[in-house]
Design goal:
This protein is α+β, with helices and mostly antiparallel strands. The chain contains 12 helices and 25 strands. Helix 1 packs across helix 7. It starts with a strand and ends with a helix. The relative contact order is 0.11.
Length: 481
């Protein structure tokens, strides 16, 4: 399989992919070519791997067999790497129902989405709706409309954005892309190139050459256009047998390109550091620092270019104090608690003020609670004046929240078992592992939600090895309390 890789994990993933006999990295950037001191072919890719906008992980899009193989590789990077299949994959065509209109576009109900192929080996993330900007539709769009849309840009399940939709049908690619309903030979240089290769764009589709086309050989462009034509034919076949949107929506018309998402936890980032260091100088915590902040990412590149470096021994060499002093968080800052779930969802537990911080990796957040409801698992009412004091330690598999009333009396303690905590400048990130331990106000200790962890293992969203780690951590916390 041919794989294209982009983003902050490119060097490490290029090294991992290159270790496989059945894999070739293609269309590599100039920086990657320099680091590996080799020439990567400029030929069509069977799959693309690209870092997500928030740098927390990667998206993988392409042919099902290639995406399946990459999914297996990514899942094995570290114990806290999670892989989810996307129910609204790139290029998929849906008949949707406009659920509501917002200022710049419409939220479209896409139904249950695409069921992931069993071969992908990944559970489906939550999904089933997308966002259609008004500019992406030639017709006026209002609530209740039924219309045919295509997923232009899928969205990672932990991000707040919905998949971006369009009413035009297109098949993108860095070498050749097709647009339905356009003339067959349009776009800069298109006519000249088409005259020099054996493939013509599918009838009813216009070819546009991608940004890499100028440097590619004619054989590669011919192969790219032929492959894209085949996908366009699949869309046409699906459209020919599809019911009218007014009769069928919401429904899936064409499943699009296999799409999955991988979120890297802290341990996985350090594993990727080790792999990257086999190729190029890599400072301790390279990927952990880059994942936290754009400015920090640029600073890592500068430091490695200036001074070089080598991957160290994980936490022992990770310059947490230096990084946080430079980029945050600091005393008095407002920091979000980013509560990831094993099914891919991201839940904000709100923001707290940094009440205490030390360079060893401990961060204490203080939150004032809104009266009403009860404290989870503790079963006591939330009253006026209640506060939550949460202490996080970078790299720890759990964190504790102490709840106090207006008189500073302890109402209870909740210990959340999770993947290793990462303290980023604006957010504390982890994935919740369900099982938790609570200590009630009367001192009684209780372990909760083991059944939820068991269910997550049965559903395939938590591996058995990770579940065993979570159970071990919970047992240790329970004994300590």
């Amino acid at each position: 399989m041919n794989v294209r890789v982009r983003g902050i994990y490119s060097t490490a993933l290029t090294a991992l992919l290159s270790d496989r006999e059945d894999c070739s990295v293609v269309q590599a950037s100039d920086a990657i070519a320099d680091r590996f001191e080799t020439e990567f072919p400029l030929v069509p890719a069977d799959a693309g791997v690209e870092t997500t906008a928030d740098r927390q992980g990667v998206g993988v899009v392409g042919r099902e067999a290639s995406v399946t193989a990459i999914a297996e590789l990514l899942a094995d990077v570290g114990l806290d790497a999670f892989v989810w299949a996307d129910p609204t994959p790139r290029d998929a065509v849906f008949d949707g129902v406009v659920r509501e209109t917002l200022g710049s576009g419409a939220v479209v109900d896409l139904g249950d989405g695409v069921e992931p192929a069993a071969e992908l080996g990944a559970v489906a993330a939550s999904g089933g709706e997308g966002f259609l900007p008004f500019d992406n539709s030639a017709d006026h769009v209002t609530e209740g409309d039924r219309l045919r849309v295509q997923v232009r840009e899928p969205a990672a399940p932990w991000e707040s954005d919905r998949p971006l939709l369009d009413t035009d049908l297109k098949l993108p690619g860095p070498l050749a892309r097709l647009v339905r309903g356009r003339t067959g030979r349009s776009g800069t240089g298109a006519a000249d190139i088409v005259d020099l290769i054996s493939s013509d764009p599918l009838d009813g589709w216009g070819v546009r050459w991608g940004h890499l086309a100028d440097d590619a050989a004619f054989d590669a462009l011919d192969d790219a256009l032929a492959a894209t034509n085949a996908r366009a034919e699949a869309i046409e076949d699906a459209l020919a047998s599809a019911a009218d949107p007014d009769d069928a929506a919401p429904a899936t018309v064409w499943a699009g390109s296999a799409t999955l998402w991988c979120w890297f936890g802290r341990e996985s980032r350090f594993e990727l550091d080790e792999k990257r260091s086999e190729t190029v100088s890599t400072m301790p915590g390279h990927h952990r620092i880059k994942a936290g902040d754009d400015r920090a990412s640029a600073a890592v590149d500068f430091a490695e270019a200036l001074c070089g470096g080598a991957a160290g021994d994980g936490d022992a060499d990770f310059p947490f104090g230096v990084v946080t002093r430079q980029f945050g968080p600091r005393d008095g800052d407002s920091v979000e608690i980013g509560h990831g779930k094993p099914d891919g969802r991201y839940i904000s537990l709100g923001r707290g003020e940094v009440a205490e911080f030390d360079s060893g990796g401990t961060l204490t957040l203080r939150r004032e609670l809104t009266p009403g409801g009860t404290l989870d698992a503790l079963g006591v009412d939330i009253e006026a004046g209640d506060v939550a004091v949460t202490k996080f330690k970078e790299g720890r598999w759990w964190y504790a929240t102490v709840y106090r009333d207006a008189d500073n009396e302890r109402k209870g303690t909740y210990v959340n078992v999770c993947t290793p905590v990462e303290v980023f400048p604006d957010t504390v990130r982890y994935v919740d592992l369900h099982v938790d331990v609570v200590k009630h106000g009367d001192g009684a200790v209780e372990r909760v939600d083991d059944a939820e962890l068991d269910a997550a293992v049965a559903a395939g969203s938590v591996s058995e090895d990770l579940a065993e780690k979570a159970r071990g951590v919970a047992a240790a916390v329970e004994n300590a309390l």
